[in-house]
């Protein structure tokens, strides 16, 4: 990890220190993903098989997971793992139901009722990563809110292994949450299939889920095409920013940094502290813990583009963090709630030394599909609302129109939209 001191850096160095790693490959990615999307649109299921052979090194017969594969997955899974998946699903369900938007009805004047009603997005496509590690927890994070929202057709794609099968735990989690169809597809080709549809894969209205740089770029491209599909947000390579004070436990801080560094070579982790001593102790601890990790190679690549930054105060750490807008923000300080009010951009926040980021990844109940690359400045993580449309409804009585009609007519006249004005005045005349 590179060691830096915020107050000794000029603006260009600060910008470079907070730049995300994958951005440097943006042009190469854009062209590659454009080609994959075009190939899928042109070649449909045949192209999907060819792309799976090329990128996932698997020979697919059926693209869709059938009943026998679901049954075999359930039978093969360890009962302790199945219980943990059910336990996590229950807590995710509890939080997401409690946080779900509610219908609203308000009388904004006598005889003027305005409502907000909720409707599920009909056809949704979920992406569950499995390139370097299959993530059954992501199937829960997407499947649970889709079920609560009441989406009619829920399709899930996840890359197959070399044996042509999907990860058993991903299949179990998908079934548990009521996903209707699962396809053995990964990367940009999975996103293209769900956005445009093929003979096997139904076209979806909105796509959800995290993924590597190819998946994220494909989501962005299909969302800018009117024939494509909407997306939840850009949820790319995982990242974490930790703010730690001088008394933070370096063992815990290092463990949290490594937990996101091990996701992939494009991940990035940042530690901000006003204590040079703490930064040095965490650096040593990261080295020590990393050496013992099975994914040490992956973590080291992520650490090469990660930073330890000395700040002058916790207040400055908050300013830097808001500027970076991390996917995950951990406040390993004595009084984390004292900083919370000043945080304005982060996907998910973890308070205090007993709240590792991992609990949010799996089973505290919050959602782990979160905006990366600084998109936390304007996007939120996945929730039930992401799977719903909020529709407004209004009903005005004759008395209500007498109340608000003149206001409408005045504003319409000011905008020189005479037909708008008359839609009101003709009725007011009929009421006179
Ligand atoms: N932001 C979030 O909420 C969140 C949540 C979970 C995971 N993640 C991130 O998701 C990512 C998962 O990535 P992953 O790679 O393990 O799995 P993945 O399923 O996202 O990607 C694997 C697919 O990438 C495609 N691919 C690989 N190399 C390619 C190439 N050279 N050209 C074209 N396509 C290629 C393949 O089709 C393969 O199926 C990680 O970066 C992780 O940090 C983010
Ligand atoms: N940290 C990831 C989100 O960036 C989510 C995840 C799934 N499994 C483990 N972690
Ligand atoms: Zn994680």
UniProtKB/TrEMBL annotation:
Name used for this protein in its record: Histidinol dehydrogenase
EC assignment: 1.1.1.23
UniProt xrefs under Gene3D superfamilies: 1.20.5.1300, Nitrogenase molybdenum iron protein domain
Residues binding substrate, per UniProt: 238, 260, 263, 328, 361, 415, 420
GO biological process, alphabetically ordered: L-histidine biosynthetic process
GO CC, one annotated term: cytosol
CDD domains, A to Z: Histidinol_dh
Cofactor: Zn(2+)
UniProt: NAD(+) binding residues: 127, 189, 212
Keywords from the UniProt entry: Amino-acid biosynthesis, Histidine biosynthesis, Metal-binding, NAD, Oxidoreductase, Zinc
Catalytic activity: L-histidinol + 2 NAD(+) + H2O = L-histidine + 2 NADH + 3 H(+)
Organism: Rhodanobacter spathiphylli B39
Family: Belongs to the histidinol dehydrogenase family.
Enzyme class: oxidoreductase
Active site per UniProt: 327 (proton acceptor), 328 (proton acceptor)
UniProt GO molecular function: histidinol dehydrogenase activity; NAD binding; zinc ion binding
Domain of life: Bacteria
A Pfam family: Histidinol_dh
């Amino acid at each position: 990890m590179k060691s830096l001191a915020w107050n000794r850096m000029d603006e260009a160095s600060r910008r470079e220190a907070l730049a995300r790693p994958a951005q440097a490959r943006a042009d190469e990615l854009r062209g590659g993903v454009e080609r994959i999307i075009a190939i899928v649109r042109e070649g449909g299921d045949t192209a999907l098989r060819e792309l799976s052979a090329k990128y996932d090194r698997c020979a697919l017969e059926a693209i869709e997971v059938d009943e026998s594969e679901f049954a075999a997955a359930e039978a093969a899974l360890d009962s302790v793992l199945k219980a943990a998946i059910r336990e996590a699903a229950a807590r995710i369900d509890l939080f997401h139901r409690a946080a779900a938007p509610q219908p609203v009805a308000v009388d904004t004047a006598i005889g003027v009722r305005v409502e907000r009603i909720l409707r599920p997005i009909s056809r949704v496509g979920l992406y569950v990563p499995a390139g370097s590690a299959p993530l059954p927890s992501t199937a829960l994070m997407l499947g649970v809110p889709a079920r609560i929202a009441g989406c009619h057709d829920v399709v899930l794609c996840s890359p197959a292994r070399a044996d042509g099968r999907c990860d058993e735990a991903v299949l179990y989690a998908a079934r548990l949450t009521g996903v209707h169809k699962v396809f053995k597809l990964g990367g940009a080709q999975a996103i293209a299939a769900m956005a445009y549809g093929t003979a096997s894969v139904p076209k979806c209205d909105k796509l959800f889920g995290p993924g590597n740089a190819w998946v994220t770029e494909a989501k962005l491209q299909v969302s800018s095409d009117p024939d494509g599909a909407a997306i939840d947000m850009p949820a790319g390579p995982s990242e974490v920013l930790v703010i730690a004070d001088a008394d933070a436990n370096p063992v815990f801080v290092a463990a949290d940094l490594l937990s996101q560094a091990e996701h992939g070579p494009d991940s990035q982790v940042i530690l901000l502290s006003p204590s040079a001593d703490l930064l040095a102790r965490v650096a040593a601890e990261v080295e020590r813990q990393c050496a013992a990790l099975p994914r040490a190679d992956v973590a080291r690549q992520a650490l090469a583009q990660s930073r330890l930054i000395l700040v002058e105060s916790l207040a400055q750490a908050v300013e830097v963090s808001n500027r970076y807008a991390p996917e995950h923000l951990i406040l390993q300080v004595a009084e984390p709630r004292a900083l919370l009010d000043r945080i304005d951009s982060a996907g998910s926040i973890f308070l205090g030394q007993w709240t590792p980021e991992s609990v949010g990844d799996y089973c505290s109940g919050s959602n782990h599909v979160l905006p990366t690359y600084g998109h936390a400045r304007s996007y939120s993580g996945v929730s039930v609302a992401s799977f719903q449309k909020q529709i407004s409804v209004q009903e005005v009585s004759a008395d209500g129109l007498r109340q608000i009609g003149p206001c409408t007519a005045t504003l319409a006249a000011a905008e020189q939209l005479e037909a708008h004005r008359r839609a009101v005045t003709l009725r007011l005349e009929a009421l006179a």
